[in-house]
Fold these 4 entries.
Entry 1:
Amino acid sequence: MRVRAAVVQAAPAAFDRARTLDKLDRLVAEAARAGAEIAVFPEAFVSGYPKGLDFGAVVGRRTREGRDQFRRYLEAAVEVVWGFGDGSTLPVLDTRLGRVGAVICWENYMPLLRMAMYSKGVQLYCAPTADDRETWLPTMRHIALEGRCFVLSACQVLRRSDMPADIPNALGDAPQTLLMRGGSCIIDPAGKVLAGPAFEEEAILSAELDLDEIARGKYDLDVVGHYARPDVFQLSVNERPLKPVVPER
């Protein structure tokens, strides 16, 4: 089975949900016209990763201006800004394109979480991120090789001009200051780079994925199969929904 996949490297209209959703709609349509059946967007694309902002926070003190900046950021969110999930929020979903799962940014450095995803048979491993360092590409290649899955990673290319002009930014105030340089990529189950990485410009990267490569790769390495050693190692995953407040009945 073959799937045409894309990763979208772009900047949102930060703090502006409506304009960001309009841009997302245009980019999805562009990717679809190019044949993409699945498109991965960067972490916190709607409506902006607040890189370089401190919201007036230092240890032990918050400014009123920072609180108001946070209020604006919260109001631009789709539902919530940041929060904690639980094991019930880590699914791998059966789709007509294959088994799809998502691990965000530095969650990809949590080996037990990766193992949980591999155990669910993830085939299209989506990795939205805000990490634009040179170490990100080898991380994505390692995960693809380790899990024998396709990895689709998208990162923003973000400039100071994409952020609200009236909110100070610790990384610089010149409009063309580069806050996030991208680095989006698509990797195959052997660790081969199929597309990217792209830097310092908006881009839609795409590649044709041959899902048969997953089985070919697992022939000699399957970390939840013949390489698992359950006689020595086991991972227990709590997938029950957990709430911070549970009324007594």
Note: DSSP finds five helices and twelve strands in the chain.
Entry 2:
Amino acid sequence: MPDNSNARSRILASIRMSLGGSSTPEAIAADYASIPRPYTRSSVADQGALLDLFIDRLLEYDAGFYRCNRGGIATLVADILTLRDKRRLAIPSGIPADWLPEGFEFAVADTWRNDQLDKIEGTLSACAVAIAETGTIVVQNVPGQGPRALSLVPDYFLCVVFAEQIVATVPEAFDRIEATSALPTTFISGPSATADIEMTRIKGVHGPRFLDVILVV
């Protein structure tokens, strides 16, 4: 079987050489580092303004939003699941036990197949970081967040976000996850939806149709 990755590298190297560049990894890295980046990389907004912006974006995306303190997570999870009429959720390993209310079933599903996840009522997860300007939640394959399939396959996703995890911009979010940047990472901006098919908005095409966010302050 041909090595397509090497063929691709040779083609790209040939293009760079024809444009007067270099094909060595060091030179490519230097060229990339020298690209001007005048876009906004940070914000001077205080935490209150960031929280307000994040909440505004979530509501604009038609996501559910709830707020509690650190001691009230389990109670709020129970209230939300009752409101959503859900009793059984998938969770990643590493979710704090005090987030999980009694009277519901939470199944550790890190190794579940997609067909198993498709039958579960939803997922409860933590996040790595959240972005105020885009209303985005970033989830990585680490304890408490789990494999990408957990946040993509079930129809419902409930995510716990702490106030200190919210940053203003996308570059700040990348700085936060730099140490784990090689891990599978999912960026979630509201419930999954697309209008690619005949300009008709359809939910749940490439992720959960319903998203609720608990903001812990």
Note: The two ends are 54 Å apart (CA to CA).
Entry 3:
Amino acid sequence: MAGKQFPGFPAGKLRFTRIPGPFFSELLPQIDNLDELKLLLYAFWKLERMEGELRYLQPEDLSEDAAFTAGLAGPLEDALQSAVNRGTLLEAQLELEGSSRRFYFLNTPKGREAVQSLKDGAWKPSGDLRFPIELSQERDNIFTLYERHIGAITPLMADALKEAEKEYPADWLQEAIRIAVENNARSWAYVQAILKRWREGGKDERRTQGDSEKDRRKYVEGEYSDYIEH
């Protein structure tokens, strides 16, 4: 049965939702599940309207929207699982107040960083029932990140980290260490090589996943490969 005819977008200033380019060039041709497609588009819209640097969805954020769930052909859980299996959404679980809670992030650099931080224990209860978790202040501490991911801090290393804090933005330091961990290159020399490249060549925050994969190969196979232990 055909649905109610859409009357058209209203006149006046409208709020738009940003969708990454790779969605159209890479994901759209692959997705053959209409519920999964609806879920992903809804996630773009919902997350765009949230506040804060790091944003996530919980199952109730989706199930409480009766208009959205009524438009699904099957269970919401099936659509969520399809999106997780495809890799468009990242699922993380955390024990809160004696029960396991699920959180969903878009598979973006920030989303991957958030999930890794959760696994590292850098989250804490926020006290907000609607958004129950937040990053702890340890996330911004370069010394904590170094000890957790690379090794013990010697006096000489402590001086190097202090200089790095003055020279580079905190988010650069966090992302460079994350890249080192992903590439199994847990050394400060490797992290420094990434930071120097960004400083000299510029760091484009709007890179696509394809660009990130190109960079990953460059770090692993290119001029920075000397910093990786094989």
Note: Residues 24-108 form a domain with the Arc Repressor Mutant, subunit A fold (CATH 1.10.10.10).
Entry 4:
Amino acid sequence: MRFIGDRSILGECPIWDPRLDTLFWVDINSRLIHRWDWTSGELSSRTMNGRPGSIALTDTPGVLVVAMEHALLILDWGSGDVTTRRDLPIAEDSVRLNDGRVDRLGNLWVGSMHVPASEGRSVGSLFCVRPDWSARQILTGIGVANGLAFPPDGSIMYFADTMELMVWRYTVDSEGHLGDPTPFVDFARLQLPGKPDGGCVDSDGGYWVACVYGSALARVTADGLLDRVIPVPIRRPTCMAFGGPDLATLFVTSIGGGGQYPEFDDEPDAGRVLALDVGFTGVPEAIFRGA
């Protein structure tokens, strides 16, 4: 186990790019996107003019889709150029884009949330954006959109509403249409610590979810059985991604504190990226092909 990078206020959305042997992640409240090189250990950052909720890989290494505030943008890491590509229909200024993930067909799914979440307003949505940049609003009435992940065969979508303490399982077809939701990870029923935040899948089909405020990560089998709960030395893990050259390292982002988030003296590494071996390997991150 080791920690990478500096402390984030609100670290989220780690993404591994195997073409570059590089990890990307965001610090939402600091308006930063970070990049860490596996071979050299070099850390670099780009400052955005809004809060980047999530990022996704594109066909071009080093060019990212950024879901920020109410829009989708393209960030060219090398030049630093940022281009707005698609505004999404978000009516309230208090709502921003949050968790996002590309499915196995190349569609980008991205959800939104009201800020601050402590006000308990379920006014978020889930959007599906096709490679031609057309967008559909798929779900509404969401508290905090999180937990998006797609197993290797692409026929299932996992999606969490943090406020509901629930991860849902949906079937998804080739056009991006969802079947009826099925409860998949019920934090209350399973007595899991904390709340569901970001998720990912491993090569065996297991679903991993960060137990934010619960100092733990949980793995659930494709059949919905709780397989293991792994304690971590940070109270607020937020999201995960498998990476490294063999996809055998689990990278975990977290809340470090600052602003609306309290800081704790007994977790000096909170907000940094935790890298650990959990005995599983991941699957390559899907690529959005609309850039």
Note: The two ends are 35 Å apart (CA to CA).
